[in-house]
Each structure stands twice: as C-alpha cells, then as structure tokens.
Structure prediction request, 136 residues.
Amino acid sequence: MAKWLYRIASILLVLFSVGHTLGFRKLDPGWGVDALVQSMKTIRFSAQGFPRTYWDFYVGFGLFVSVLLFFSALVCWQLGALDASTLRLLLWLRWSLALCFAVVTFLSWKYFFPAPVVFSVVITLCLVAAAWLAQG
Prediction:
C-alpha cells in the first residue's frame, strides 16, 4: 500500500508543480495591486553586483518552488518503485519527506489560499501514511 501512496503523492506533486508554475505569476485586476506589481517589475537595484527587481526575485523563487515540487514528485515516484525491504531501510528519508510537507501544509494554510492548502494536505496525508505503512 505504501508504494501506491508514494505514486499518488508523486502524481499530485506533478500537478501541484504545474499548477504553481502556471498560476503564481497571474494577477487579478480586482486585487488592485497593478501599481505595486509595476513598481516590482520596473524599479531596479543592485543585488551583489547584479541588476535585479523584486519581480525577478518573485519569479525566481516561484520557479525555485516549482522545481523543488517536481523533484519531490520524482523522489516519491522512486520511493514507490522500491521493494518493501529497501523502503523500510529509508526511515529518515520517508519521515523527513512527510515532515517537510507537513510544514508546507502549515505554510500554505498560513500564507496562501485553498488550492495549495488542499494539495498540501492530501500530499502530506499520503506521505505520512506511506511512511507509517513502510515500517512493515
């Protein structure tokens, strides 16, 4: 059962990564942040000798998150491919991955909105259950 939960988590993580990548730069005019975003895109400053904007940081960190979500999907897929005895040996990896997504769930709840919260909760539940079941 742990293998299937890791595979489900992997698929959800791919969807989360794609959704995040497609959505994090979208702006709703109803938010009334056009002037703020425009200033984030146009005001340049030097960061360790490189000309940057806050929008550069926003996009860079957003893509950073997308890449890490996709990497997590690959790790989960690989965990789902392991036999039970090998999976049982990876105690720290199993539980640290579950703990990581428990923290992601908290951060999503505290700072974001329903879509990332739902993805985070379901992924965390899959990872905790898989880690628990893999103990044998």
